[in-house]
């Protein structure tokens, strides 16, 4: 594989950790995971998924990890969390904003968790050695860094 050219990268923005819940349930904040109505909570594997790492960091730092330890289920990735919550096999779970938006008709709702974990920074970086496409790559990265890209990035859950 080719290494990324980190020096030529563009910071796109951040994406928040999102708490989702099943239909028939309403949560106002992550603190509500301690409610008796919430029996099972899913999160992506922190060793395999950035949103799992963020969820673990948030739960540990907020003290919620201890309070909901018996309810917490680690699954592989964000799509599994969405699947379990949308089928009501889990009451709530942690995902990314794009997944929550795309699956909003299948879940009860969602809320952003904006603090308590290392920000999830999205960047675009060209592959080293792509000299043949250098002008196109540079033009695309310039566009990504411009306000013209904001609407597209926002659509995919990235905010500057």
Task: Outline the biggest β-sheet.
Answer: 5 strands, mixed
Using only C-alpha atoms, the radius of gyration works out to 18 Å
Gross morphology is: elongated
Distance separating the two termini: 30 Å
Order of helices and strands: EEEHHEHEHEEHH
Q: What proportion strand? A: 15-25%
Query: Total number of β-strand segments?
Result: 7
SSE arrangement:
Blueprint: E1 10-15, E2 17-21, E3 41-44, H1 50-62, H2 64-67, E4 72-75, H3 78-86, E5 92-96, H4 97-102, E6 109-113, E7 120-124, H5 134-144, H6 150-155
How does this model look, in words?
The protein has 160 residues and is an alpha/beta fold. Helices cover 31% and strands 21% of the residues. The radius of gyration is 18 Å and the shape is elongated. The model has no long low-confidence stretch (mean pLDDT 92).
Put the structure in a nutshell.
With about 160 residues, the chain is of the alpha/beta class. The chain is built from 6 helices and 7 strands.
